[in-house]
Design brief:
The protein has about 220 residues and is of the alpha/beta class. The chain has one domain: Vaccinia Virus protein VP39 (Rossmann fold). Helices cover about 30% and strands about 25% of the residues. It is built from 6 helices and 9 strands, in the order H-H-E-E-H-E-H-E-H-E-E-H-E-E-E. The strands form 2 sheets. It has a 7-stranded mixed β-sheet with strand order 5-4-3-6-7-8-9. The longest helix has 14 residues. It is globular. Bound molecules: S-adenosyl-L-homocysteine. The site of S-adenosyl-L-homocysteine (SAH) has 25 residues, from strand 2, helix 4 and strand 4.
Length: about 220
């Protein structure tokens, strides 16, 4: 859990942000509480700190971005997460979404394909008190050795749902992915049986691309 010394600074701004997200339609109280708890300013380069609690995306290095808080909250809400569940996250990035999942009591396995971000976040998150399992590699393949997962969240936009991820989802589990290339449609997949899936679409979002690179290994 987050170390006490980080809990207070910015709390007023985080409460305002959570109120704004509620006005924008986020209903899950646990998600809003997680947003109130995670110190987003620590995840940003110092030049963006002033605007850490606005509902906007920011660059995090390696050409990637930390998603808007509304997007993070929206995806997390769609997961319908329960404390203790096992979650696979594709696209660790800054680790902000990872921390929101951890705040909600999830056990998180997270994959990043940019070495620079992987190296940085793997050290940064534990340094503020959050622990997850970090993997460097291609999220298209998932992490079969720890499967199945209760929930899978993909935080980059891709044209397809990787088959390996559908296989690694528990029956009864949920996978949330922004599907598409130029713009993405937030898509929820529920696994009803081994080969039976239900798909629900939730409006347009804008993400950095989910990239497949066969050279990466998990
Ligand atoms: N969840 C992150 C968002 C980062 S943006 C946060 O809260 O900061 C999406 C991330 O997905 C980027 O860091 C990008 O490098 C990563 N990514 C893209 N394709 C990937 C893949 N195939 N496997 C793993 N990570 C990938």
């Amino acid at each position: 859990m987050l170390e006490d010394k980080y809990k207070h600074r910015g709390i007023g701004l985080r409460k305002q942000l959570s109120k704004l997200l509620k006005e924008k339609g986020i209903q899950n109280a646990e998600v809003l509480r997680a947003i109130e708890n995670v110190p987003r300013h620590l995840f940003l380069d110092s030049s963006f700190i002033e605007r850490a609690y606005e509902d906007i995306a920011h660059p995090i290095g390696a050409g990637q971005t930390i998603s808007r808080p509304h997007t993070v909250a929206f995806q997390t809400e769609l997961l319908n997460l329960k404390s203790g569940e096992k979650v696979l996250e594709i696209g660790t990035g800054s680790g902000y979404q990872t921390s929101v999942l951890l705040e909600m009591g999830a056990k998180v396995y997270t994959i990043e394909r940019q070495k620079e971000l992987f190296d940085k976040t793997k050290i940064f998150l534990p340094s503020i008190g959050y622990s997850a399992k970090f993997f460097y590699g291609d999220g298209y393949k998932g992490i079969p050795v720890f499967a199945p997962y209760d929930k899978i969240i993909i935080t980059a936009g891709g044209p397809i749902i990787p088959d390996a991820l559908l296989q690694q989802l528990k029956i009864g589990g949920r996978l949330v992915i922004p599907l598409g290339t130029k713009v993405q449609i937030m898509t929820l997949i529920e696994k009803l049986a081994e080969k039976q899936f239900e798909k629900t679409e939730y409006g347009e979002f804008k993400f950095v691309p989910l990239l497949e690179n066969k050279a990466w290994k998990v």
